[in-house]
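Can't paste images in this forum, so I'm doing it all in text. The chain is below; anyone willing to post the predicted C-alpha cells underneath?
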Amino acid sequence: MGDWNWPRLMRDAYVLFTLAMAVVTIVGRGPGGLDANAYWRSDLDNLYPTPPTMFGTYLYSPAIAQLIAPLTALPWLVFLAILTTANLAALWYLLGPWAFPALLVPVVSIELLMANINLIIAVAIVAGFRRPWTWSLVLLTKVTPGIGLLWFAVRREWRSLAIALAATGCFVAISAVVAPHLWAEWFGWLFKYAGQPPLTEAEGGWYTQPFPVPRAIRFLIAAAIVVFGALTNRPQNVPIAAAIGQPDVWGFTIALGAVPLIDWSGWRSRLAR
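Text version of the structure:
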C-alpha cells in the first residue's frame, strides 16, 4: 500500500471519471447544460436576437462565436460532452486531486451542471501570469473580469500588459475583417440594454443575481483587491477580483483560480512557526 503512487492513481481515476462523464452526457444522462445551450445555439446570421437577461441568450463577443462555430455544427449532446470534459479538465488544473471533493461543493457541481465557461476563464487567468495572451479569453467573453490586468499595470510589467492587449486586438481584428457587422451589432446590443432592468421569470428572464450590489461599486472593490494584491505580491487576489468584477456575479468558480496561485509553502512555514 505504501508503495502506491497515490498522485498518479488519483489522476488516472479522475481521467476515467471525466471519460465516463463524457459518455454519460452523450447518451443523454449527463448535465442539463443550460448555459452551454446558449453557446451551441449561437447563430452567426442572427447572433444577438434577444435581451441579455433572457435565458438562452448568447452574450459574448462575435470572436468567440466564430471560434466555436465548427463545434456548434456537432450534435447538441456531443457539444455538451466536449464542454463538460473541458470544465472537468479545468477543475483538475486548478485543484489537482482536490477536484474530487470539490465536486461535492454546490457551487462547483452547479457550475458543471450548467456548463458555463467560468472554470475555463479561471484557467486563463492563472495561465495569464506566464502567458499573458490567455487574457484574450477573459476580455472577449465576460470582458469586465479583465480588471485583473491592473496587476501588470501596477507592477509596471508593461510587456505582459502589451501582450495581453495586443493578442486581444489581433483576435478582434481578424474577427472584424471576417464579419465587421457582427461587432457593430454586439456594441449596439450592449448599449441598447445597458441599465435596463432584467426580465422577469414570466418574461423568460433569470431571477435576481445573488449579490445585488451596483456594478460600479463592485468594479471599484475588484480594482482595489487587484491593486492591493499587486503591491503585496498576492497573485491570488486577481481571480477573486475577477469573480467580483463580473457583469453579473454568478461565476463564483472563477475565484478557484486563487488556489494554485497561493504560496502554500509560505503558509505551511507560518503555521509551523
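Residues 6-258 form one domain. The two ends are 32 Å apart (CA to CA).
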